[in-house]
Amino acid sequence: MHRPSDTDHREEATMTGHILITGAAGKTGGYAAKTLLNQGHHVRALVRRADERSERLAAVGAEIVVADLLDLDAVVKAADGIDAVYLAYPIAPRLIEASAILLQAAEENNVAAIVNMSQISARRDAVSNAARQHWIAERVLDHFTGAVVHLRPTFFAEWLTSFFDAATGQLRLPFEQARHAPIAAEDQGRVIAALVTDPTPYAGKILKLHGPVELNHQQIADAMTRTLGRPVTYVPISLDEFGRDLRKRGYDEHFVQHLLAVAVDYRNGIFAGTNDTVETITGRPPLTVEAFTERHF
Description:
CATH class of the domain at 6-155 and 185-211 and 272-286: Alpha Beta
CATH architecture of the domain at 6-155 and 185-211 and 272-286: 3-Layer(aba) Sandwich
Number of strands: 12
Strand order of the largest sheet: 3-2-1-4-5-6-10
CATH superfamily of the domain at 6-155 and 185-211 and 272-286: NAD(P)-binding Rossmann-like Domain
Structural class: alpha/beta
Order of helices and strands: HEHEHEHEHEHEHEEEHEEHEHHHH
Distance between the termini: 51 Å
Helix content: 40-55%
């Protein structure tokens, strides 16, 4: 099978619009798919199951494919005729295998680019099993002969919706007074859409994604208070209490081990910082905590 040259890749990536979005029912994948559809691209949305989320994507023009990222034949079929792929895998075992399968499927179908969702905590010596696996998955995908871009976001702003207790007005989290700049999934979706349609300027790069303002969780609670017009309180808790809370929510041990480890990373400044990457790539600044709160609470 003919393998396009680097020039061929560049032309395909900027001129064509057949995009495979994996994890399309998830937060970043869903926003990326909708952005691309609004821009007139053909989106093939790979989902693990058909449900109301996939129905909503189909209603706005996405081609829905129900498949498992661990099924090589299904992924190869899903990548047929595709120019670029967004790879998103949940915090779950077998990430490295899924990444290798996606890589093989992309190679067999002459895909021009892969945009990979990683983590800001991804590194060789990470204590989190999931974060270390993301680092290895990045190195696996680096063998792709097309363009590869790795995204490493800080904590999503969606953490606030997941861990805010509306009944008590509390955010109970084990982050002490460390800081980060929350990044909304919709801003990441716009970045992903821009990169899968024109990855060339960022090919081979690791991009950290941050929101516009670095805050600790007391400051985040204060911003939510101002926006909502009712008290929101940050309650620092221990790692042990956080672990108990996660298990009560029904999360599996792989997920719990990851969140406990990255909570320590957070305290140590791994998630800190801000930059202008979102605005540089998309032409629009990312949402502030106040703007995110207005939209989602």
